[in-house]
Amino acid sequence: MNWSRKLGWFLLLALVAVFPSLGGTVNDGSTTNNLNQILNSSPSSLSDSFVSLELANCSSDCSLKAFQGGDNSSAIFALRSAWYANAVAPTGGVYTVSAAFQPANIAYQNRGGVMGWLSLSTSNGIVLQVVPEDGFDSKSFRVSVVDFSATNGNDNESLAHLFNTNGTAATGDAASAWSELGTNYSATNFATFQLAFSAPTPAELAILTNATAHVTASVFQGTAGTPIQVSRTIELLTDLALPPPSNHRFGYYAVWASIFEAGDAIGYLDNLSGEGGVGSLSNAPPAVSISSPTSGATFTEPANIPIVAGATDSDGTVTRLELYAGATLLGTSTNSTLSLTWTNVLAGSYSLTARATDDRGGTSTSNPVNVTVNSSTVSGPPLGIALTANSIEISWPTAGYQLQMKTNLSSPNWTDVANTVTTNRVALALSAGNAFFRLTQQGTLTGPRLTILLSGNSVVISWPAQVTGYRLQAKADLNAVWTDVVTVNNQVTETISGASRFYRLTP
Q1: How confident is the model over 188-218, as pLDDT tens digits?
Q2: Has this prediction a pTM greater than 0.85?
Q3: Claim to verify: residue 140 and residue 260 sit in the same structural domain
Q4: What is the span of the domain harbouring residue 485?
Q5: 498 Cβ neighbours under 8 A, 6+ residues apart
Q6: Which of the chain's ends, N or C, has fewer CB atoms near its CB within 10 Å?
Q7: Alpha carbon of 481 to those of 46, 449, 505, 507: distances in Å?
Q8: What CATH number should be reported for the domain holding residue 485?
């Protein structure tokens, strides 16, 4: 969302002079696609609650609504959450980050603002937020350190690693890490929360030798169309380690700061921006591999082959994982692991690969795993064939087999001879031309087998790519007529619709 539409129109010169941080927009409130979430990782603190971010107010100007849902009645401390840019990050320790926040209600639990100095490796960062109304503690703007990996409330949000510019430890009062809201601030409108990080001065380093940054915090809000500063400027030092570039982020921040009140809308977030030492991140593609089976493994047809694949992404998350046999898709997952069994695989050589996609569209394909499915070495009982005047009598040692025949060996299709499973002898009338016979065990399927896999709202139907001479047919009712389905390379993907659908292969 454009800032001018939030606060009213104002002169560009006034904006540059009074409000220099607006610019370099990373997220304009119209999408969540370029944001990743970080939140408390301690299971005992989460209970069954969750925090989500969704589009809101799009009938006019979109913004993002932070919402806490679920049951937080047994939570140990409030569930804090930040949404950081996944394609833009600080390039060093000197930069400014801004974000707009409006509480959903003027209540002590509806808190939000901006987070900077966020380290993904240590799961902590520095936040500037508003407490819009008195409650268990006083309403204020405040700077604090949030540790998402903490297992207790005191460590989860605290003043640890923050100091006044004279080197003394920061405190929760209006002369240190907090600021009064002042008479110009209105919690019913958006305000922009700004954190600026700069290098400590020599004088500051003389006071606090391990200082890593000078932190300047300010809050701005529109009045009669022109943003003005509504808080006093909070200036602190920190000794939090400068995050490594690959793990340094900034973003929106929100928390439903109550474990007694049922969760609800926290507030609205908009216009995340960064200036100064901020740049685009290069995307490291995900790493992906197949752990089972191992390359060179052999099976016997009709084979059932368990396949396990996994993927990791060093600078984001894996959003899709696919398994292929050659060009045939075997299955997909929206997680970083995928496990399935490829069933009824006929004799042949196959190359298995996994393909992973990350949250920024980067893709990687695993090294191929080559497997071989051998023909079955099981032989059936011998056939005895006796010629009489006008027929042939075919016999075999025991019942329990299906006799099949065909007149052309080049055809892949065998035809069952009726009523042979419960006997071991049959007489057939002689006919002109050649006839070929074989026995199959009762219940044994012949011909290629269909593989049917679910993929989201679709179904993938396929059979071995090396098998030719068949066409796929389908119908929605077993009493209906079979209709042909167009396939490519023995595979088709169809959208799931209706209560049922039946498939078969036919020559």
Answers
A1: 999 999 999 999 999 999 999 999 999 999 9
A2: no
A3: yes
A4: 451-506
A5: 476
A6: C
A7: 55, 21, 14, 16
A8: 2.60.40.10
